[in-house]
Design goal:
Blueprint lengths: L1 H13 L4 H8 L3 H8 L8 H11 L3 H14 L3 H14 L2 H11 L9 H14 L5 H9 L7 H17 L6 H11 L6 H21 L3 H14 L5 H13 L5 H18 L6 H17 L13 H11 L3 H12 L6 H8 L6 H14 L2 H13 L4
Helix pairs in contact: 2-3, 2-4, 4-5, 6-7, 6-12, 7-8, 8-10, 9-10, 10-11, 10-12, 11-12, 12-13, 12-14, 13-14, 14-15, 15-16, 16-17, 17-18, 19-20, 20-21
Protein name: AimR family lysis-lysogeny pheromone receptor
Organism: Bacillus thuringiensis
InterPro entries: AimR-like
Length: 381
């Protein structure tokens, strides 16, 4: 950190920025900022540096580079915790990985070692290395903690594990626990980021419960309050897009494309679980309505959606092979896959009824509309 602050002071002098103005932007006393720059205060608060960063580095690429350098230079336990929460909100998954690697199992970081291990699980899910039942097993091995923000992240991860398994109804109790604990988080910066992350989950819970107005309200709130270039904003745009799937497919497509554009700008396209998920949802939308199917980016689309496309617009051979292969492997079909399967053999209404039942059992009222609409179209009551 000493080297970073030395370079920071040189940069301030070089670009002739006023320390008093920077202190005001950072919401700290001018004297304290001078003490930081002179090395009398060991480490600046992360949030103070983030507030100054736009004035220090007007270019977004330069600013992002310096924020990464600052976070990696952090040594105080609180700044490391802040850095982890910031990385999760922004989508700085590789930076989080480096930060965890630097401090995990360090004797100096014994007090936050549990926290580092927990964020390691969080990041493994971000990077598609751990999800669903595998994540649930890891969480079950953890002991309960009296630390409120630690317990909030544990409950968030339980929610993610259930989301991965399409068990949306079971997410609700964890969400309620987080609602109770969030006001108890003492640090304002960490609370702000946990609030945004939790709001993202609440938006999805409302979506699946078919509470569209509430879902959109939360999504729009995230979009207004989240950092401009952040993965949490991209998630809100995507969730907002999903809420329009039945009401206005073209509006839904617009939001999905905005979300993907933002994720691409953040540079997390190749390894982000979310990037592939949004591409698959966008592909589903386009296949379902037969709009812009020529624009589907198949490199990022799931095999199920590829089978759905073949069943609707191709020969159906690839789709049939896909589902027969799943049957040979003894795999249970999700509600979505059962819906896709119907288009391979349109005579099997029971497949649709099974899909509807699965959507209902999972607590996914919103997407059960997909099957209900088709059953009505097929003349089934």
């Amino acid at each position: 950190m000493k080297s970073f602050i030395k370079n920071l002071q040189e940069h301030i002098n070089y670009v002739k920025l006023d320390v008093g103005t920077l202190a005001k932007k950072a919401d700290i006393d001018r004297t304290n900022l001078n003490r930081v720059l002179n090395g009398k205060i060991k480490e600046m608060k992360l949030e103070s540096f983030l507030l100054m960063a736009p004035d220090l580095y007007p270019n977004w690429t330069d600013r992002r580079k310096k924020i990464r350098e600052f976070i990696l230079a952090c040594e105080s336990n609180l700044n490391v915790k802040k850095g982890l929460s910031y990385c999760q909100t922004i989508g700085e998954y590789q930076l989080m990985k480096k930060l965890i690697k630097k401090h995990i199992n360090s004797d100096k970081k014994e007090k936050i070692n549990k926290y580092l291990h927990l964020y390691d699980l969080y990041n493994q899910r971000n990077l598609s290395k751990l999800e669903g039942e595998g994540l649930q097993r890891k969480l079950d091995e953890l002991s309960h903690s009296k630390n409120v923000d630690y317990q909030i992240i544990v409950d968030m991860l339980h929610g993610f594990a259930l989301y991965d398994s399409s068990n949306f109804m079971a997410m609700v109790p964890y969400s309620k626990k987080i609602d109770q604990n969030l006001p108890l988080v003492e640090n304002a910066f960490i609370k702000k980021h946990l609030d945004l992350q939790h709001d993202d989950r609440k938006a999805h819970i409302n979506l699946f419960s078919n509470k569209i107005k509430e879902c959109r309200g939360i999504c729009n709130s995230i979009i207004r309050s989240a950092p401009e270039d952040s993965v949490i904003k991209a998630k809100a745009l995507s969730c907002l897009g999903e809420s329009f799937i039945f009401e206005n497919p073209f509006q839904a497509e617009t939001y999905f494309l905005e979300s993907l554009k933002l994720i691409k700008r953040l540079g997390i396209t190749t390894y982000s679980k979310m990037y592939r998920s949004i591409h698959s949802t966008l592909a589903f939308l386009r296949i379902e309505y037969g709009i812009h199917v020529d624009k589907i980016d198949w490199d990022f689309v799931g095999e199920a959606e590829k089978a759905f496309f073949d069943a609707k617009f191709g020969s159906g051979v690839k789709a049939r092979f896909y589902f027969e292969n799943l049957k040979k492997q003894g795999k249970n079909l999700s509600a979505f896959k059962l819906y896709y399967l119907f288009f391979v053999d349109r005579n099997d209404i029971m497949v649709l009824k099974e899909a509807l039942e699965k959507f209902a059992n999972n607590g996914n009222v919103f997407y059960s509309n997909l099957v209900t609409r088709l059953l009505i179209k097929e003349g089934v009551k």
